[in-house]
Amino acid sequence: MHYLIWGVAVLVLLFIVGNTESWLLSWLVYFIALLALAAITVVRRRATVVSVSRHVSHTQAEIGQPVSVDVTVNWQGPSGPGWVLAQDGIPDSFRALGSCGELFIAGDGRDSHYSYRMTGQQRGYFSIGPLRMSTGDLFGMAQTNVTGDDHTFLTIYPKIVPIPPLRIPSNRPIGDARSSKRIYEDTTRIVGVRDYLPGDTFSKIHWKTSARLGTLATKMCEPSTSIEVNIVLNMHYGDYPPIDTVAELACTAAASVAASLLDQKHLVGMQTNGYDAIWKHQPKQAPMPIQLRPDKGPAQLASILNALGRMQLSSTPALSTYLTQLHSTLPWTASTLIISHHLSDESLLELDALKKSGFEIVAIIVGPGSYAENARMRVAALGIPVAWIRTEKELATLEFWQPGRYE
Question: 73 — phi, psi (to 5°)?
Fold first, then answer.
């Protein structure tokens, strides 16, 4: 459109020249036409010898964490006098700390740089870009716009809310971490015996010592706090209301629980039926489910947070189907922690089947409303410890209620 306007203007001037006898006006029109032609040629050439690139300081960040972006304008050959405007694109949910674009004067052949910072305001998997470049001449006669195809992907982690140490029942008979708090006992580490007390199981009786003393004696085992927890995050869209806040609360709860358990030196894994946003940008590959085997340490927390940052609601599979698929792969020694807003009849039947098969099941119901309250009551009726988290603030006082405490 810019070139069309100039073409029409030159034709009009040439028509005027053809109908006038002023040689000065004729030369002026010819000079403007040549100048416009030269400007168009130089600007088009500049667009082929100038490129723009981007470097991002982090590809994963927390909510509100500043991320530095460095943009370089590369001159790959003579470009002639003029200007170049580089403009980077950031998602709407990001806040830029400084200008995302900058204007440069062309002609010296040296690379140009500028930097800005940005912060993500919500969890997600975001595309930074594309880079847009506009270039023109100093007289405003020609301009060319070029849009790059380079994108940088940035994962924003869910928020972690500090929560109190969790007491989760476990089938794991042998712990890994020694502790002064007698939460679980490692039956392989006997540190002494004591007198038998009513309620001690036969497996705890030290029979050799009992025979020697002529009275029952019970083993005293070394305390251990290590347990194994599999977080199963339900991200089936049919189990969540249309508003995004409840699904976000589920991701925040999963991240907070994982961080707390890993801080206690427990083994933590995660499975989810949600959709991994990374597959949107890899259309030639079939989506793969997220299944992180139980592990511990900072690297495991980073893997869980990275997966939760990319997680989106999915149409398939439903939680009941997903639990059926997981039944044969879940380790018996691990406790299974279900996080969801709503639980269908089929999902509750699968939870009951897992419990009757010997698995330790606990549940966190997230979000307000009758669906969540109903899910809490029905889970408790199955004899499963459950917590109901209606708001993010309630995560700070997370506690699993034992069945029978509801009226």
Answer: -100, 115
Question: For 113-136, how does the pLDDT look when each residue is reduced to its tens digit (9 = 90+)?
Answer: 899 999 999 999 999 988 888 888
Tokens (6 digits) for 33 = 């036409």
Residue 277 phi/psi, 5-degree rounding, is -65, -15
Residue with tokens 């009726």: 381
- 174-219 per-position pLDDT tens digit: 444 443 344 455 565 577 888 888 877 777 888 888 888 888 888 8
- Report d(CA 255, CA 309) in Å as an integer: 10
Cα–Cα distance, 227 to 229 (Å, whole number): 7
At residue 129, what are phi and psi to the nearest 5 degrees?
125, 180
Domains of the chain: 48-156 (2.60.40.10), 184-224 (no CATH), 228-397 (3.40.50.410)
- Decide: 89 and 145 in contact? Cβ < 8 Å: no
Q: Decide if 115 contacts 71 (C-beta within 8 A).
A: yes
- For 377, residues 6+ apart whose C-beta sits below 8 A from its C-beta are 406
What is the C-alpha separation between 75 and 103, in angstroms, rounded? 14
Pairing, β 152-156 against β 275-276 = unpaired
Q: Give the Cα-Cα-Cα angle 388, 390, 237 (nearest 5 degrees).
A: 90
